[in-house]
Amino acid sequence: MHSHWNDYPTIQNKLQVVCSFLEKQLNVRNKDIQQALIDFSQAGGKYLRPAFFFLFAEIGEQEKQNEEDLIKIASSIELLHMATLIHDDIIDDSPLRRGTMTIQSRYGKDIAVYTGDLLFTLFFEVLIDVMNGSPFMAMNAQAMKGLLLGELDQMHNRYNSNQTIDDYLLSVNGKTAELFWLACLEGAHFGHTSPEIEALAGDIGRNIGIAFQAYDDILDYTSDESTLQKPVLEDLTQGVYTIPLLLAKAQNSAAFEPFLRKKGNLTEEEAKKVASLVVAYQGVEQAKEFARTYTEKALADIRRLPAGHARDQLERLTRQLLARNY
Amino acid sequence: MHSHWNDYPTIQNKLQVVCSFLEKQLNVRNKDIQQALIDFSQAGGKYLRPAFFFLFAEIGEQEKQNEEDLIKIASSIELLHMATLIHDDIIDDSPLRRGTMTIQSRYGKDIAVYTGDLLFTLFFEVLIDVMNGSPFMAMNAQAMKGLLLGELDQMHNRYNSNQTIDDYLLSVNGKTAELFWLACLEGAHFGHTSPEIEALAGDIGRNIGIAFQAYDDILDYTSDESTLQKPVLEDLTQGVYTIPLLLAKAQNSAAFEPFLRKKGNLTEEEAKKVASLVVAYQGVEQAKEFARTYTEKALADIRRLPAGHARDQLERLTRQLLARNY
């Protein structure tokens, strides 16, 4: 399990069980692909969404909880996440993810398409096993749909230099925040908290998700490849204009125009020039401020949760998201 | 609706309702993609699986049936089918499907990956709407999984000249027969027939599926591009060795060896040469015999169904599958 959780021993134990459960689920006749999926599930992923799930569950009435069900639900969230990562890597043609080769680069896009599909199926299989008949079945399908519509929005806006902050938010709300929303909401629900806490959990998840994505987008402009464990400026060169760029461009659109007009033909040199313009026009600073706003919203809501160990851990974990390498 | 159904007016009407229902489901913020999906759902697809579904439902107790639910379930099967077609076309890099451009060739693989994923979600969304809590939820997930494992098997066996008929059957059982199995079984179940008829329906579907795939594979060796509405010998050049080739190769492995050894480097000329060898060594004739065996199994089981309009139509439709253009 990722060293990130050394300071969260209860969560670490549960995530370890999720990891073992996933290994058992990833059962494919083709043993190469099975091993690739198991490697992928264990290769440095933080299991951040399952962690939020368990922290919200911890707030609920322990005696009403079914530990096995909670493990399965947490795993289903990670399966959905893994499926979207594998398909994202096809689109990005990414050679690296979490510091190791992507399924796409190791086995080709053909295998990557079907293994991603297979994980979507396993996601539903686990859900059906644990909550068939529950209204949460529909909420899970809705989350998956929101996630994909967010990805399609992002795709649609590629190389669109007229993209607005609202466009960005709509896409991020789907592609990233939807899964944090689901993880927190399901944790609160299946942990037997209360309807009030469930509503709060959903809001907290959504705001954390937006902040999380914004920080991720900031890293693209401030990090180097060895720290990031994936190529830098990848989004920019692929026409995905994220919050640091959008905010910098709002300061001086004309400075960016000659570069963005080149669309897919931006050289590495030019991409670096755009990145330095983003910094020069306070894009990174403002994006940090943007992310901070959402983190503060989440923290304010976290403080409205019942006091205790879980709330303290939630607050700490959320603050840590603010202190990532940049 | 496809002219194929002009002689089946009751089925034609129901498939028309499925078509309208699908159009309403294909609701995407990006209107280009929405239109592409609607076009795809209406562009010459025969809705063969929904047709089998309705014919089996017709055998059941009409007064117990919920017409709206039946439309939704039939639509869910077509959604799953469409999703897999879109992802297949990414893998095959197919320019054409049903005589029109594929989503992949029209919008690129990026959009194709996510639109396929979106259809998988819509598949589950419709299922959850109509049968949340039913054990058929798990059977649907199982069918989708079987389908993908079949595709992965096929992928795994690409350019493998040691592939056996059993390997082929294992893959076809998943990638094609699983969906016919599901369509017939669900028709019988949600049409309120009996457990005996349900079991028979599943078997019939599976055998029809295998025969259907075998005929499809035969067409690849006997048809021309304008009849097929997609490139011919596509499977062969992509290393997918289907039943006509496998049976011909069993007659004289040495004749094929120099060609198959070239794997992905087979020229168009050489592919045509392989195709003529397949014909020369009775690969097509034997494959027809192979397909006929499965069709006869299905027909024998169909004759065990209660006599009546639906059974007659089922028999006729199944016989028609034998009379496709080759």
TrEMBL record, chains A, B:
Cofactor (UniProt): Mg(2+)
UniProt keyword Magnesium present: yes
Protein name as catalogued: Polyprenyl synthetase family protein
Pfam families to which the protein is assigned, alphabetical: polyprenyl_synt
UniProt organism field: Enterococcus camelliae
Superkingdom of the organism of origin: Bacteria
EC number: 2.5.1.-
PANTHER family (alphabetical): ALL TRANS-POLYPRENYL-DIPHOSPHATE SYNTHASE PDSS1 (PTHR12001:SF69), GERANYLGERANYL PYROPHOSPHATE SYNTHASE (PTHR12001)
GO MF entries: transferase activity
Alphabetized UniProt keyword annotations: Magnesium, Metal-binding, Transferase
Family indicated by similarity: Belongs to the FPP/GGPP synthase family.
